[in-house]
Automatic annotation (TrEMBL):
Top-level division of the source organism's lineage: Bacteria
Membrane topology listed for this record: Multi-pass membrane protein
Protein's organism: Sphingomonas gei
One GO location term (cellular component): membrane
Membrane-spanning ranges: 35-58, 70-89, 101-124, 131-151, 163-184
The keyword Transmembrane helix is assigned to this record: yes
Protein name: GDT1 family protein
InterPro entries named among the record's database cross-references: GDT1-like
Record's subcellular location: Membrane
Pfam annotation, one family: GDT1
KW Transmembrane (keyword) present: yes
Keywords on record: Membrane, Transmembrane, Transmembrane helix
Length: 188
């Protein structure tokens, strides 16, 4: 259970700054079915989280506990760096005619590949309990997708996402430094 809550919180903090949430809001407006779009986006995040967790589970046993902690520290610092970079507007997928379930499922899955939430999930899964890491990340991303879909593009872009992105990046940086110093045994 010790990775479920961190994975949830990391996804909850990272997702508002990432492109999948904005794409979810755009598609919810387009299809006028916010719940369907949010659930499809949540499923896309779930698939990506499971893949990241499987990769973490494959790598984790070959790492020492210190290396596992260092991997998480690197993920947090990388998340802090990418969090301050403004996400470009994703393609609106105007030419995709797959409907309100398949379009957000495929679109969000593709846009979310390699985003910071998946890196966090990978690092947490490498430390153990990959299914809980995937579940926590999926739930956190689903909460953000629900809010984005409910608000729509206009409501989502009115949120103070820039300040949230900077605050989350600062938290990621501080946590990454503390965990990294502990992994390197540079703290008492």
């Amino acid at each position: 259970m010790e990775v479920l809550v961190p994975a949830f919180l990391l996804a909850l903090l990272a997702q508002p700054a990432d492109r999948p949430a904005l794409l979810t809001a755009i598609l919810a407006d387009r299809f006028k079915r916010p719940i369907s779009v949010a659930l499809a986006a949540g499923l896309a995040h779930g698939i990506g989280s499971v893949l990241a967790a499987l990769a973490g589970a494959a790598v984790g046993p070959s790492l020492t506990p210190e290396a596992q902690s260092l991997l998480l520290a690197v993920a947090l610092v990388a998340g802090a760096v990418t969090g301050v970079i403004r996400a470009k507007l994703p393609s609106r997928l105007d030419r995709w005619r797959f409907g309100p379930l398949v379009t957000p499922l495929l679109g969000v899955f593709v846009v979310a590949l390699g985003e910071q939430t998946q890196f966090f999930t990978f690092a947490l899964a490498a430390g153990g309990t990959p299914w809980l890491a995937a579940a926590g990340a999926t739930l956190g991303a689903l909460v953000v997708a629900m809010v984005a879909a409910t608000l729509g593009e206009a409501g989502w872009t009115r949120l103070p996402l820039r300040w949230l992105r900077f605050a989350a990046s600062l938290l990621f940086l501080l946590a990454g430094i503390v965990i990294g110093l502990g992994a390197l045994r540079l703290t008492g």
